[in-house]
Amino acid sequence: MRLRPAAGWCGIAIAIVVVASAFDRYAHWRLDRHLDDAAATTLAAALHGQSPWRWDLRRERDVIAGRAFGPATTHFDASGLHVVATSDASVQVGLALNRPVDLAHFDRLDVTVATPAPLAVSFVLRETLASAECRSAVARFDAGDNRIELGSLGWQCAESTQAMPERAEMLRLQFELRRGQAFALRAASLHPATAMRADPAVFGAPHRLPPGLDDDALAAFGAKWANEAQPLVELPGDARVEQALATRDALWRTIPAAIPIAAGSADRVLAEAQALPWPPDAAFPIRAWIVAASWGLLLFGLRLRLPRAPRARALFGILAVLGGPLWFALVPGDAAASGAMVVASLAFAASIARQGTDWRLLGSASSWILPVLSVLAALALVAALRDGSPVVAREEELPEYVLRYLAWAAIQQWLVCTILMDRASIVFGTGRAAVLFTSVVFALMHAPNPMLMQLTLAGGLVWTANWLRHRALLPNLVAHATCGIVLANALPREWLRSAEVGMRYFF
Question: Per-residue b/e over 21-60, b at no fewer than 16 CB within 10 Å?
């Protein structure tokens, strides 16, 4: 009789190992797909004579902070970014950059402007975010399309005259405006002064980036291929996901216009690029919102007619609550539409929260044992991997940061324990299976972040087991928030790149 419980625990242990391995393989697969999809889009743009640096200035995400800096009002509509000065002053518009800009090859800025009178504009950039500010001489924008040869302008960096820097991690447009002066920016893009030949042969064979490159070797690699405007570069195929992304970022710091791809995928990526329609499919965000609206309607209908059988009711509740978060984490798409699906699932969860739940907030002293052990394990992991003291946040931001993390941990623990765990126990009929299932889906909510999936799988196993025994929410909440704050801010970047989930993780 004693063999059956032992066999059950062995099965759980084997399942945990298999799931952890599957998470790692999934993260690698998703990284390869992200690299190759991004490369195919960049190549398709190049094959049609388009720049990898383009800003559709009708969208807030293309402008730093979603507004102009300075005494001015800002709003977006279908015709562009509209700015109206509220006093005589300088107003800056920062172009959002997800990687450094290659000004050595892409030194012509094309800007489409709607303005009743010419605009005096200068350009402000930093080679790195920590370097001194560089400012160009004043140029002029007229109504319509403007082409500015940035390299032909005079430049001053740290109050000394010099040539235009060859790269930038910050790029802003500074306008000298009078009170009431108004204009609209419609689009902006960077291009080579001499148009590139739109031919697949331009890209040639991919360059292979060997593993374990240090800064000197990477600089030598960059110097070797500095004459190529957009070299194809294969990332090492055997690196961990965090290491591969760190290598990609280091490559971009050395060759900003490099096109990183997964190992061995050059032919397929180029074929995909040639087959992609151009301009890109504008209906993609619309389809994403159709999916989000359909999901909301489906949940509304399900809430009105939930099954009466307890197991079916629990199963449909689980699927409804998980749909939005898992879609956000696992499916590339419009972030706003995916976020709306998450909100819809949370609203559904709130509507069924009182059905068959029995829990308490504080719990007994014994309900804190496993959560405290999970915090100690997190501290031990940091002590083993961390070199140096952690920095959680700037001192003035720390209270807000901690409160925000506590609130997010509270939502997750409420969802995982009171909604999912209780219904999983009904569906599976055994506590161990319910703990494993709930921990796995809790980890999947943090996809495709590989280290975060592994950590949340371990934490989920501890916290759901603690919930099954004590049904106390606060111990799990405090442990979750403490572990999250410690691990997200103290683990080295080569182990936990960030605490981001969904496709944002790759940026």
Answer: eebbebbbebbbebbbebbbbbbbbbbeebbbbebebbee
